[in-house]
Amino acid sequence: MGLPMLVVNIRAIYDNAVNAVRACGKAGLELFGVTKAVGGLPAAARAMLSAGAVGIADSRVANLEKLRKSGIGAPLMLLRSPGVQDSRRAVRAADIILVSTLSGIAEISRARDDMDISREIRLIPMVEMGDRREGIMPELLNDVVEAADKLSGVRILGLGANFACFAGAVPTAEKIKYLEELARGLEDRCGAGLVLSAGNSSALSLVLEGKWPRLSYPAHLRVGESILLGWDIMTKEPLPGMRQDAFQFYGEVIEVAKKPSLPDGPVGCNAFNERVRPVDRGCHWRAVVAVGRQDIGAGTLIPVDPGIEVLGTSSDHTVLAVDDAQRSIKVGTQLEFRLDYGGLLGAMTSPYVEKIIRE
User: How big is the CA angle at 49 (ends 47 and 54), to the nearest 5 degrees?
Assistant: First the structure.
């Protein structure tokens, strides 16, 4: 058994997707399952679709290609505007593309024409709603849509919004209603059959708390993290009825020793340009696990064993405080961890992590 290792429980993903789909359905919403944190894993996508998701969304064209090649025939949505070099592949792989610039829309139109594809490419312009990542400023939206309407082979399907991915902007009923108001202003040009891609996992709390507003347009949420990890992404608290055991991560202990807790001599930045401020614990027991940022990216390990605390992670090592561990920790011990979203993303895309898929 290779280590580090990530075990993926497809049944848990399915169970969480069932709960998310059911909750969205009660609010009049459909759901696109998002597979980007699991690298477009076909088994995860099939679980989401079996649970009632109407389609699958991913930010990478390569992942959509993988999903289509695996036999998935459901609608596929590209979450990130394709670069110039990816436009042809995006047009071929995606049924719906989220866009945020007129130049990007023009490139998609050009790629579609060059490839002599007969079907229209459906686009959802993303609106800047406060998270300050991608999105068209609301006051520029009409001009962008008007110009896009003159391009061949592309059709504006609706409007989209994103929350809590960059600046942590919280979705609110007022912001969702504002997105609807913006869509209403496009009806003369785009027709009345618009769709709202009204948010991501962060919006599930509005749904579960009964605060989702009544909308006059069909709408869906793009849900990945809450299905995969079973928590509210704003609070990291478990969502009602959701499982948190879809992923088990294992790392091997390669050193156990009693050491001073504070560094010796002058200190500066570490290898990642961070200034670490360790807590003075005196001389205490520390363990080193053969897991680092090459394995979990910028994510966090959450020990399953009581009494173990993560002190920090470098490129190839994670240092633990094990003074209060409730079992014997020695070289060769395999420790189990949970992962946050960043850790899952890193582990699924790292070539150094063995993946075990249990369906």
Answer: 155
Alpha-helix runs per DSSP H in the chain: 10-26, 42-50, 61-69, 87-93, 102-114, 141-148, 173-184, 187-190, 204-208, 225-229, 293-296, 341-349
Contact assessment for residue 222 and residue 200, using Cβ atoms and an 8 Å cutoff: yes
Closest residue by Cα to residue 247 from 49, 33, 31, 44: 44
Q: Over the stretch 244-267, which tens digit does the pLDDT of each residue have?
A: 999 999 999 999 999 998 988 888
Residue 1 lies in a domain: no
- Read off φ and ψ for residue 196, nearest 5 degrees: -105, 120
**Is there a single domain that holds both residue 210 and residue 347?**
no
The model carries a pTM of: 0.94
**331 and 217 in one domain?**
no
How sure is the predictor about 118, in pLDDT bands with cuts at 50, 70 and 90? confident
Domain extent for 20:
10-229
Considering the domain architecture, whether residues 271 and 224 belong to the same structural domain is answered as: no
